[in-house]
Sequence to fold (198 residues):
Amino acid sequence: MPTGVHIRDARQQLFDAAERVLLRDGPSALTSRAVTIEAGCAKGVLHRHFTDFDAFLAELVRDRLARIEAQTADLKAAAGTGTVAGNLTGALADLFDSVAVAIVGLVVFRDELRARLRRTGPAHGIPLLAEAGTMIASYLADERELGRIAADADVDSLALSLIGAGHLLFAGGASPDAGALDKVVTAVVADVVQRRLL
Fold:
């Protein structure tokens, strides 16, 4: 793109380009040059909006984290409706889309990015997965208060189990069928759902 041509919503255009490169070529191929070529803009555009490439990548991840915040509100609103396993299955399917799985790989791949994200987020776990675990634990706490799972349910451990299992199912490349995900979720929460009936 010639210098001086205005790009509408350059940040989002760069984020979209980065996601395409990440999905197509993996985290090792994600460079500032690859992103700007994919976005069809001059390399200077990226540096006008971000101090350096790691700052760009951190904002890319934070953009994905903002989606988790929105999903948290939707999941918490579902507490008390449908089934616990059904709500969790839907949340995990939404959470682990192909871009989110690729971004988790990026965070694991780039030490500086992970360190930068930890300065402003949870100090433990993998950024994105840690926030997703908090979302699941918060929902389960609401269901516990409503009496839909056992009063002594360890929601933090359940959330870790669900996030770990969900990530393993989706990280293989192709998304699992809904039945496979539902089967795992149902198995993880079966005890706390059944014990609340006793």
